[in-house]
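Reader question, answered in our methods column.
A reader sent in the components of a multi-part assembly and asked whether the whole thing could be modeled at once rather than chain by chain. We filled in our standard form and ran it. Here is what they sent:
COMPLEX SIZE: two components
ENTRIES:
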Amino acid sequence: MRQVVFLAWQSLRFHRLQSAILIFGLAVTLYLPLAVNGLVARYQASLLQRAGATPLVAGGLGSRFDLVLHALYFRGHVPRLLKMADVQALRDTGYAEPIPLYVRFTARHAPLVGTTLDYFAFRQLPLARGEPLLQLGDCVLGAEVAATLNLGPGDRLLTDPENVFDLAGSYPVSLRVMGVLAPGHTPDDRAVFVDLKTTWLIEGLAHGHSDVTGTNTDANVVLDRTATNVTANAALVEFTEVTAENLASFHFHGDPGDFPVSAILPIPRDEKSATLLRGRYQVPDATVQILVPRGVVEELLGLVFRIKRFFDANAALVGTATAAFLLLVVLLSLRLRRPELETLFRLGCARGLTTRLVAVELTGLALVSAVVALTAAQITWALVSLW
Amino acid sequence: MVKLPLIARLGLASFLSLVFTACRPPAAASSSTVPARRPVVCTTSYPLFYFAQRLAGDRATVRFPAPANEDPAFWRPSRDIVRQYQRADLILLNGADFEKWVNTTSLPLAPQVDTAAGFKQDWLMFPEVITHSHGPHGAHSHGAIDFNTWLDPLLALRQADAVADALRRLLPGAGAELEQRRQQLRRDLLALDQELRGLSTRLASQPLLASHPVYGYLAHRYGWNLASVHWEPDEPVTDAQWVAFDALRARHSGTLMLWEEQPLPAVGAGLRARHVLPVVFWTCGNRPVHGDYLQAMEQNLDTLRAALASAAAANPAFRGGPEGTEKTGK
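And here is the structure of the entire assembly that came back:
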């Protein structure tokens, strides 16, 4: 056998250009479906991991896909908003601790996620630099956002105006960067996190301004004054930055129970509680839907990856065509090498030996092609995961 | 004697050493075993601190970080103290808009318990508060909520029950002990309620004055005929304020005036000149100088009883009912 391998190796070395072309053709044919399937499998796994790590998602009635994509990946908008009263009602069931989310605004095009400190403990998000949120107006950056914007603890980040054609309609708020999260290769890397109350500040449900009820108030900002109420006009300047000096002036208007949230992550105490909670909200007049994210994501992936079957069929056809061309090349090669093989026979080699020689040459080519294809696929997967 | 080959001898030696090693008596339990960490409970008011300490005993570490010389309702904790609250296993809030600093601070939601949320329908509003709004139809701030809920023993009992429920979830193995302590605290608060009812019978419908509108829950529960001004014990009273006070007394002729703390001597003298006796009725929002919440409330009742007796002796026109008769309250 060693002699056959030696002869096969010497033959391939002698015809190195032909061998390289054959290896390249075979490797590309193997690499394309391998790389694509590997990428799809990894992407699917990462989506499912995020969904699997989240026991439940609650939100307004409407598209379950929109709700899950919004709550887990901070994409898109929910069909209906909830209120803080819904968060409290869910908490009052005793089956789960709710983590509210309000994802409506952006900061330098990164999604601004309003939530509570419970979110960071639930997702196990350690800080790479700085400190956790402390007060209104603070933010913590995902690792990618911090790297892209080159921001760190102590810097300032301005929120994006919601409507560029209505610059007077909303006041961008200057956020104080408190910390940067460690990379987690999740959508959290690409988000800016603030306290839920800060998103309400951006929305205009809270603001800070100078005291208008005192006797030294500038008359130009007062529209009307009675014994029990002072009405300020639009000339009253509201603070766009929360500082230690003006923090005490910030206040909310309205009933906190009516303040909006876009989704809730209920964290059930156990499996039984999760089931009971879902049952509690499966009534005809429920205004809140509770979903199991893994099931929704699996359903979504099943819909999306039906297209993958066409790519798989295409790869199979291409592979078949490549195999046919390879066979043709091998047959033509054997015809050209007939005098060489005849010489081997006349030198005393058995017919079986020449057959084994050709088989070893082809096997060697296939193995090298497979190794090249696999290596290229691994490199591709590694590069895409970094990107 | 048979001479064993070297390898056999080495193997036998290894086996014997393993046997002797395995037969070593187990090590005694280490005296430096790390004890389980006691849960940490942080409160935002002194009465909640008192209730939590009485209920939890030594099962939990209870903290009330507000300085003794600050009003907890308007206190702003430092960065380090906020971090304390953030790390706590349980955060007991008075609610009813008491702890203003919570509105602008990042705290985890799961450990928070709003102890006044269960009786929101019973919250009272501060009278005569100047609100502000934005634009003729803009956002409107409503009158401020009276947050002194703990002054009413029956509301304090509901808050104590909320604390007990939260501690029961935090300390699942201490249910029986917690229930026993809860019943004891309940008896103490109900006894305080009975004393206040008896005292209120003596007050009858006599007009009472207050330096600050913080006694609303007491007045509401026990039917006190109470009118309040908005004075501070450490500030002098201006001439305009005296004029307003005299006008108030023209229609509400109270001879006793409740104060959170002893007023300035000049203010006290001005009141006595008008035949009004200042009576210190401590609101217990922060730690008392002596004793605890219940002891401070008992002291308040004793002070008020003595003031009633003094007022009756000094002013024959003062009429009070006999103490002990059940008075129609809430």
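What stands out: The interface with chain A takes residues 76, 79, 82-83, 86, 100, 103-110, 128-136, 138-141, 143 of chain B (CB under 8 Å). The first strand of chain B starts at residue 40 and ends at 43.
Send us your own complexes using the same form.
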